[in-house]
């Protein structure tokens, strides 16, 4: 297993790395089809730590979950701080930061993401998203409150109650 800074290293980029970078670029495009494109049809996504009690999501649930969040965030951007690739187990771990804004203010979060890939490294079959819950939960509760008070309900805010 080797640790290589994004864009660093020598030689040709592995298919695994290309797939994971495409996933991050999908988030940076802020288009749900690009976000979902690198995912295997049976992929699952987990938001961690488990103390957040978030359900494991298949693609249908993840698309619905993320599509509900997208209208409230603007200028969303993910930056990869470090990337660790495990060619034997076909996984990549990323330490990343995201920034963006909503109508309640600037947003910034730190993540550890683990992507499990198929044998060819072309599709993500499982992803683990460790969020900085000390930042995420208060921000999302406040955003949920704003949506309830100012915009009415679309279901997003029900995920983040006080």
From TrEMBL:
Superkingdom per UniProt: Eukaryota
InterPro entries from the UniProt entry: Fungal_Meroterpenoid_Isomerase, NTF2-like_dom_sf
Protein name (record): SnoaL-like domain-containing protein
Organism name: Phialocephala subalpina
Phylogenetic lineage: Eukaryota, Fungi, Dikarya, Ascomycota, Pezizomycotina
């Amino acid at each position: 297993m080797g640790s290589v800074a994004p864009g660093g290293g020598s030689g040709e980029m592995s298919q695994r790395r290309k797939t994971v970078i495409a996933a991050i670029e999908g988030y940076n495009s802020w288009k749900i089809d690009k976000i979902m494109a690198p995912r295997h049809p049976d992929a699952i996504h987990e938001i961690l730590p488990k103390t957040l009690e978030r359900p494991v999501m298949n693609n249908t649930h993840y698309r619905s979950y993320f599509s509900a969040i997208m209208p409230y965030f603007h200028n969303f951007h993910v930056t990869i701080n470090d990337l660790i690739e495990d060619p034997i187990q076909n996984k990549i771990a990323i330490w990343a930061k995201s920034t963006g804004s909503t109508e309640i203010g600037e947003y910034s979060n730190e993540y550890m993401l683990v992507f499990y890939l198929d044998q060819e490294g072309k599709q993500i079959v499982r992803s683990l998203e460790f969020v900085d819950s000390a930042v995420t939960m208060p921000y999302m509760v406040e955003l949920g409150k704003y949506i309830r008070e100012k915009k009415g309900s679309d279901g997003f805010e029900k995920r983040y109650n006080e």
